[in-house]
Amino acid sequence: QVQFLESGGGLVQSGGSLGLSCVALGFTFSDYAMNWYRQAPGKERELVATNSRAGDNTVYPDSVHGRFTISRDNVKNTAYLQMRNLKPENAAVYYCDVTQIGRGQGTQVTVSS
């Protein structure tokens, strides 16, 4: 059974940092690129980071480039998203996702001004 177990969300002050984790179960994690998305209330879902199967290629949109870092541990079947210099507009539910496999339930990130 495919499962994505996310953790690490919470409340952080503007300018602060937060790290998210996602344990992926039920499929061969190392065979797939990994994505992190976010969705804020009333807004469309936004891709914030992607990395390749080996984790050696990463892609970020301009909105988070230089502040967010995606990584993965294929031995632990875990993906990570490290976020720094967070802004109130970064508040959203963050999801880990694997194309054609599925996504997690999401973890809430709240940024206070």
General description of the model:
The chain has 113 residues and is mostly beta strands. Helix content is 0%, strand content 51%. The chain is built from no helices and eleven strands. The strands form two sheets. Strands 2, 4, 5, 6, 9, 10 and 11 form a seven-stranded mixed sheet that branches. The protein has a four-stranded antiparallel sheet with strand order 1-3-8-7, with no helix packed on it. The radius of gyration is 13 Å and the shape is globular. The chain starts with a strand and ends with a strand. The mean pLDDT is 96.
Strand content range: over 45%
Tally the beta strands.
Answer: 11
User: Percent of residues in helical segments?
Assistant: under 10%
**Number of helical regions:** 0
Give me the secondary-structure category.
Answer: mainly beta
Shape: globular
Rg from alpha-carbon coordinates: 13 Å
Q: What is the first-to-last residue Cα distance? A: 40 Å
List the secondary-structure elements in sequence, H or E: EEEEEEEEEEE
**How much is the average pLDDT?**
96
Unreliable stretches, pLDDT < 50, 5 or more residues? none
A few lines on this structure:
The protein has 113 residues and is an all-beta fold. The protein is 0% helix and 51% strand. The strands form 2 sheets. Strands 2, 4, 5, 6, 9, 10 and 11 form a 7-stranded mixed beta sheet that branches.
List the helices and strands and how they pair.
Layout: E1 3-7, E2 10-13, E3 18-25, E4 34-39, E5 46-51, E6 58-59, E7 68-73, E8 78-83, E9 92-98, E10 102-103, E11 107-112
Parallel strand pairs: 2-11
Antiparallel strand pairs: 1-3, 3-8, 4-5, 4-9, 5-6, 7-8, 9-10, 9-11
